[in-house]
Amino acid sequence: MTDAEAMKNFARLQREVHVLSRQYTRMLAESDGPGEVRGANPRRGRRTNEPGYARMQHFDLLEKHLREAETRYTEAQNGFDRVLKGVKSPLMKSLLIEYYGLGRTDSQVAEDLEMSQRNVNRRRHTFLRHLDYLENQRENGEEQP
Question: CA-CA 20 to 30 A from 98: which of 89, 91, 127, 144?
C-alpha cells in the first residue's frame, strides 16, 4: 500500500469505526446489556425468527465488526504516523492531522488554519501527488532528494 493510499485508508477506517461505535452504543443503550433476550425461550434454542434472539445475533455481529474495524484502524494508524513523521512543515502536518486524523472537512480545516478552502484542498492534493511521486521513485530505484 502506498503512503497516499495509507492516508486515505486511515481516514476511511476512522469513519467506519466511528459509525460502528455509535450503532453499538445505541443498541447497547436500548437494551439491558449484550446478553439481553427479551421474550426468548432458552429451551427452544436460538431462533432468528424470535425478535429477542434476532436482536441478540444482530448485536453479536455488530460487536464482531466493530472489533475487526478497530484492529484494522490501529494497524492503519501506524502507516498514518509513519507518513506524518516525514512531513517537515508544521502547517502541512496540522492540515493532515485535522483532515485525516480528526476527520474534518476542508472548510473546517480552512477555518482553523485561517486559509481558504480551495487552498486547503490544493495543498492536500499536492501532498498526495508528492507521495505518489516519491513512491514511483522508490519503485524505479531512483534516489530521493
Answer: 144
- Nearest CA to 67 among 20, 111, 31? 20
Q: Are 66 and 24 in contact (CB under 8 A)?
A: yes
How many angstroms separate the first and last alpha carbons of the chain?
22
CA angle 113, 114, 120 (to 5 degrees): 65
Would you report the helix, strand and coil content of the chain in percent, each value rounded to 5? 75, 0, 25
- Would you kindly state where each structural domain of the chain is located, as residue ranges? 1-86, 89-145
Distance CA(9)–CA(57), nearest Å, equals 29
pTM for this predicted structure: 0.72
